[in-house]
Amino acid sequence: MNLQTGTECLACPGGSWHDVEISARNADGTYNAYPLDGLGDPDEWIGITLAELSIDDESLWPAVFARMCRGRPVLDMPSFGVALAALGFDLGGTRLPELWVELADSLSSVVGQDQAYDGIRELGLSAKDFTQGRRDRTIL
Question: Was domain 57-132 assigned CATH 1.10.238?
Fold first, then answer.
């Protein structure tokens, strides 16, 4: 894959995913990017590999959401916890309820596909995380 300068996507060279714009393709096949939120050390955004990029992440979400919900039209807290645990997150104590309340209005709430995607993005995750299994970085 050869991304063009100016392509907007998500990048995660470590930690959370951020909206970025590709600013250059390097001779070794890596990319430099500019974080659209202006956050991070500028050196973080140099030499990003394809594995650290998610192109059109939103298009991955419907299939991820359907798996999380096990075919239901909404996501509940237990299903969200199962998905995060599969990524290797420690959800002991009150951590899962705290994360759920950030995503939903209350502990008993369920969320639809769009709200769930917005919520995982606010947590620094991406749909790509849920397609690749365990993460090698901790953000939650």
Answer: yes
